[in-house]
Amino acid sequence: MEEHETIVKNRSAALRAAFPATIPVMTGYLCLGAAFGILLRTAGYGIGWSIAMSMICYCGSMQFVGVSLLTAAFDPFQALLMSVMVNARHAFYGLSMLEKYRGTGPVRPVLICTLTDETFSLVSTLEPPEGVARRDFYFWISLLDYLYWQVGCTLGNAVGGLLTFDTTGLDFTLTALFIVLLLEQVKKKENRAAGIIGMVCTAASLAVFGPDNFLIPAMILLLAVLLGGRKKLCK
């Protein structure tokens, strides 16, 4: 009985430590998820579609792309290729989190499946406070971010049918959220070099491969540069 109470207390402490760190993601996910829900509703798809896509897909950028795929002519190959291209960056996220997620036990599948851009930004830079288990800390960050997205998408779709305004530009909220996360990262002096490297690699790939094909080459180039200069960056 005492052991069970100790486990509950430890998990509660981890939740209290994780929640403040997720507040910026919460504000972004609620707004961004609501934008997706509204767009999906205006495309003619109800709340069931919104819940299913946000629970199963859980990839904001691809979900926005998915709205246009649902309203266009059915082309499974194009949908598959687009999904791989848009979400290929998660492979790099996963590789970089191998050591951090080592030893997380039964919650590891949850950590893997809920790893998004914003969650990666948090768990890759934050360490649990003293007395809080690393596994529980990262679990709550990942789960809270996941729940924020579900709530935002569901509420947006629920009220989307009641709104009568031009939704043009709502998908820009995704870009805006990425910009905010970048600004939060470069506030720390030790992260600025990596941020500059990321912008330079992205700009170079954009110039060479064009706006439709630059994402994957940019990620490969960025990974190569960061791995090659990791000793200097760590210093």
Automatic annotation (TrEMBL):
A cellular component term from Gene Ontology for this protein is: plasma membrane
Against Pfam families, the record matches this protein to: AzlC
Membrane topology classification: Multi-pass membrane protein
Set out the biological process GO terms recorded for this chain's protein: L-valine transmembrane transport
UniProt main location, coarse: membrane
Kindly indicate whether the keyword Cell membrane belongs to this entry: yes
Keywords, sorted A to Z: Cell membrane, Membrane, Transmembrane, Transmembrane helix, Transport
Q: Where in the cell is it found?
A: Cell membrane
Q: Which InterPro entries match?
A: Brnchd-chn_aa_trnsp_permease
Transmembrane regions = 17-40, 52-74, 169-186, 193-209, 215-233
Tell me which domain of life the UniProt entry assigns to the organism this sequence originates from.
Answer: Bacteria
Give the family per the record. Answer: Belongs to the AzlC family.
- Protein name in the entry: AzlC family ABC transporter permease
